Amino acid sequence: MINTYSIKILSQSPFPLPEYQTPGAAGVDLRANLDEKMIIMPHKVYQIPTGIFLEMPIGVEAQIRARSGLALKHGLSLVNGVGTIDADYRGEIKIILINLLDKPYQLEPGERIAQMVFSEYVKADFVEVSSVDELAASKRGDGGFGHSGK
User: Fold this and answer.
1) Neighbouring C-beta atoms of residue 82, cutoff 10 Å
2) What is the pLDDT of residues 133-147, one digit of tens each?
3) Which domains, ranges and CATH numbers included, belong to the chain?
């Protein structure tokens, strides 16, 4: 079952609103709100405006993710892996892009630069303990990175 939420959106961009490209798409594409072309230099970090502002219900976040085509073909990725837009944030959504390749990339005005996926989240109610012995035993235990094999 897919939950649907009403998300208020304001666009200060001349480009189309975010939309699902196919019926099975999990995310909507965000576009670069630029007046002119921008050169994304190798190994540099850029903050790209989208012109998009949201209001989401408490309990919903927007996750900002890289577009796989831009990553594979042009080495464009998000510096922070996946960005989180909290339900109480009201500022413009901006994308923190990095060019991981050794050649510049020309970013066009209105180009789709990231995906936005909405997700429900759970709040933690921390119960402080004074020792590891107070944590329930598990099959994995304290096995860390690579403990289960290749």
Assistant:
1) 11
2) 999 988 887 777 777
3) 27-121 (2.70.40.10)
